[in-house]
Amino acid sequence: MGRTLTAVHPEGGAGVEHLPAPAGDPGVRVERADDGSDAWRLHIGLPGVRAADLDLVRHDDELVLGCAGRSRRVLLPSVLRRCDVARAGVAHGVLTVTMTPDEAVWPRG
């Protein structure tokens, strides 16, 4: 919706929990895999998040990330909207999602 969430009301409690201001760089980066495959890699900064605590769901053109009762939606860059998630992992505060072209929608010729 184009709005930035800046605060939430904690469940079952009074007051407001203020969220840190988003950085100028959203921490999302796309690159081609360097292993000679057709794969792409999407890197999303998630400091302090462990792989075991993260839920990852693909919903249409978005990735929905969930952790500790909170969620974040990341709109996929256009080149990845025609790809399938092959694998994902978290290391050093960065989620790396490897995506491969969906043969049904990527023209070959």
Could you characterize what this model shows?
The protein has 109 residues and is an all-beta fold. It has a domain at 27-101: Immunoglobulin-like (Sandwich), CATH 2.60.40. Helices cover 0% and strands 45% of the residues. It has strands spanning 7-8, 17-18, 28-32, 40-45, 55-59, 62-67, 70-75, 83-91, 94-101. A four-stranded antiparallel sheet has the order 3-4-9-8, with no helix packed on it. Strands 5-6-7 form a three-stranded antiparallel sheet, with no helix packed on it. The chain starts with 6 loop residues before the first strand and ends in an 8-residue tail after the last strand. The relative contact order is 0.18. The mean pLDDT is 80.
Label this structure with key terms.
mainly beta, Immunoglobulin-like, 109 residues
